[in-house]
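Notes, p. 3: input format for complexes.
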Amino acid sequence: MKILIINSGSSSLKYQLFNTDTEEILAKGLCERIGIDGRLKHNVPGKDAYEANIPMTTHLDAIKAVIDVLTNGEYAVVDDLSEINAIGHRVLHGGSKFSGSVLVDDKVIDAIRECIPLGPLHNPANLMGIEACRELMPNTPNVAVFDTAFHATIPDYAYMYAVPYEDYEQYGIRKYGFHGTSHRFVSKQVAKYMNKPAEELKIITCHIGNGSSIAAVLNGKCVDTTMGLTPLDGLPMGTRTGSIDPAIVGLLMEKKGFTTKEVDNYLNKKSGMLGVSGVSSDFRDLTAAINEGNQRALLAVKMLSYSIKRYIGAYTAAMNGVDAIVFTAGVGENISYMREWALDGLDYLGIKLDKEKNNALASFKDVKDGFISADDSKVKVIVIPTNEELMIATDTKEIVEALNK
Ligand code: ADP
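Output follows (405 residues plus adenosine-5'-diphosphate):
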């Protein structure tokens, strides 16, 4: 089955055409500067990268450009649009409405629209991508895969914030969690390494990238996660604060005269690794700065490592134990010293790192996955590259196949 995967942002749209039979990426690319001017970057494995300026006033224009490059000319990978069996869309926020991926119909569109207050930047863009595909490929089924869905099993005492209950009821103020597709993918993969189904394991998944979150996965079900109502909560990230004392917001507004929008920008874009280090949000720059003796870059990474350690402790308590800890995403997969710092001093919990194995799994090295715990470590620690696109394709295939039965 050939599945087009769409990840639609406010001014960009990433796509991938995936063959689920061979698990092969046929083509992938990116439309940028939608609503500004429009640029397409298209990659077909084994061919030179193709780039073109194509006017893209809306997401509809972007999808048109994607369809055109996939079906026409030198970089085409299908002869006809009808060869694409289904489209899988990444959608940020499903609120409390979705506990899994769904076939898109008018009702689903309405529900995603109702979640816009919870995901004001992403959900409108996700909807534009879905609506453009429905218009241009009316006979092709669309499936929505939500970042929040995997967290739907978190119990109420873990997802509630201690605000007056009526505000939870009226505004939906509660923890939802994000990166669900990644946490689900890697927690399923653990079974292969442990020779045991995920349904019999206690797993802590650490997705550490530009955005970062940790999830506690008990017997295959998520029971807690670090991100909250929005992806700002939890760990300190590239440019986001993570959890802070909420009183800081009032203080900032008072001292700096910030508006709500300015506070939002400060907490989401100016903080985290970038804000503390004053260097960069990118771990390649932070690592270079640390190697040059930059103390603030060191402090920023120590803060992240310590935060990961605290959540590992908390989620071990939440699950009454842990069998496996997974590191994934850009930083989790590549930055071995950060993993070492995060796991340092957790021997009481039965976590013992094999430094050599850990160092072998780093950027620009050939090995990309595997155990980094010592052979006699009670808790296994594993690096597993995430693959959200594969998860979206798998869900889409399952839903579409069930339709045809
Ligand atoms: P996003 O949240 O945007 O999906 P990623 O998971 O791609 O983020 O992670 C981005 C972070 O991972 C950046 O800080 C980047 O420096 C780091 N990173 C990604 N790849 C590498 C690599 N090969 N070596 C070192 N750091 C990397």
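The mean pLDDT is 95.
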